[in-house]
């Protein structure tokens, strides 16, 4: 379990780091919504969405990409930058089929309409990887990832 980031060592530091970064990302999403007078989702919806983003999205993706794939790629590719970029590409690519289906678009239409989003997804992997590597803990990237995704849905659309 420790090889994929489930250890007690540096757990508190990892949680503190992710809490600080999560607060910043939530504020980035919260302030514009409050300033424009948008209405919050119901507490029950916010709670169920947070559980969804924490368990189903963030925890699963972090275990798979940071805990398993990234650590194994480091063992196969000796240049860390190349390993990170390869896994970033994999992380970005993994999001395409679901997002294509959700948007009801074919591959090329989705890529051309969402190129910037894909670049951001590529970049988020690099940030999540840094959070994982900082303390060799899955906690920081999972917590930050969950709050990042969840904070996009604080308000009624």
UniProtKB/TrEMBL annotation:
<dbReference type="Pfam" id="PF02517">
    <property type="entry name" value="Rce1-like"/>
</dbReference>
<dbReference type="GO" id="GO:0080120">
    <property type="term" value="P:CAAX-box protein maturation"/>
</dbReference>
<keyword id="KW-0472">Membrane</keyword>
<protein>
    <recommendedName>
        <fullName>CAAX prenyl protease 2/Lysostaphin resistance protein A-like domain-containing protein</fullName>
    </recommendedName>
</protein>
<keyword id="KW-1133">Transmembrane helix</keyword>
<dbReference type="GO" id="GO:0004175">
    <property type="term" value="F:endopeptidase activity"/>
</dbReference>
<keyword id="KW-0812">Transmembrane</keyword>
<feature type="transmembrane region" description="Helical">
    <location>
        <begin position="110"/>
        <end position="132"/>
    </location>
</feature>
<dbReference type="InterPro" id="IPR003675">
    <property type="entry name" value="Rce1/LyrA-like_dom"/>
</dbReference>
<feature type="domain" description="CAAX prenyl protease 2/Lysostaphin resistance protein A-like">
    <location>
        <begin position="49"/>
        <end position="150"/>
    </location>
</feature>
<feature type="transmembrane region" description="Helical">
    <location>
        <begin position="12"/>
        <end position="31"/>
    </location>
</feature>
<feature type="transmembrane region" description="Helical">
    <location>
        <begin position="81"/>
        <end position="98"/>
    </location>
</feature>
<feature type="transmembrane region" description="Helical">
    <location>
        <begin position="51"/>
        <end position="69"/>
    </location>
</feature>
